[in-house]
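Design review, sub-item: ligand-bound model
Attendees: FS, YL, KQ
YL presented the inputs for the iron/sulfur cluster complex:
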Amino acid sequence: MRHRIRTLAKLETILELSDAERAALGQGGDLLPLGITPYYMSLLDPADPQQPLRRTMVPVHQEFLRTPGEADDPLGEDEHTPVPGIVHRYPDRVLFLVHDHCASYCRYCTRSRVVGQGELQPDRARLSLGLEYIRNTPQIRDVLLSGGDPLTLSDDKLDWLLGELRSIPHVQFVRIGTMVPVVMPQRITPALVKMLHKHHPLWLSIHFTHPDECTPEVVRACRRLSDAGIPLGSQTVLLKGVNDSVPVMRDLLHRQLMMRVRPYYLYQCDPISGSAHFRTTVQAGLDLMRGLRGHTTGYALPTYVIDAPGGGGKIPLLPESVLGRDGDSLLLRSYTGKVHRYPDPQPGRGVARCESA
Ligand code: SF4
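KQ shared the predicted structure:
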């Protein structure tokens, strides 16, 4: 963590920067921070700015463009925050943002308004407020720890937090959402795994993006976690030019199964501010799923979902949930029956207006 690449000056000693990358890093301003672990940096192509892994970590000037339908908080998480760091959108489960640090910062992050800002600190006073909310809300049976990345906490802090959650009788199930096994697999030490093992039932959702991430180091990290009895699922964001082809996605899904990671969700990229260069059309995602279904084992198939703008929750892209279109918006029905709009401009129609932030 101490040796992460965090500045333009450091980055250009390693990569030949393109004009788009240099322009983004030179602007500064409201950009999501730069942060890449030395291990993940070793996977980036120093000469090719279009390499998929490099695109997910190195900013380009398109991050400063705002297109219609985008927002800093498209999922409306801030409206469902009863105490700092708790997002309570569904009746029986909460998202607990333990802090806002990640080992590496993904350029398309849904929580780019929060991560790396240093506002959500993992001190016991703040975490205790979240624990108190969960303790006083008996309908919560499922807690997802996220952030930021919970596995960047110290073993001791995480052990304390998991112990506190396990002591709440109505919390049946704890999950950790993490990218650490992918961007810093060396963090999955025997000591960490031994500590996690004490807190079963505990599940891990690992953020994977591309088959090039499935290195021997990541295979070893996943094996350690699986051998400790921790069920592993994966979450992948569908990204234009990164993983939006059948051969690339199928390769990723197959490699995950070989690591005992069950593909869980394939997310349509959220319309966060400055994400147009990453978002595919929904039709491209449906075509991708059609190209996978039947051509590979059912265990390899994730559920393709849109996290509905405005806090509607995850909506699987099934005939009964997709109601149709209204211009450049896709109309979706959530589990509550409410209708939500996802900005989904069609190819050839162009974007109505595009402005620099
Ligand atoms: S690891 Fe997750 S929370 Fe952190 S920057 Fe990436 S997507 Fe965002």
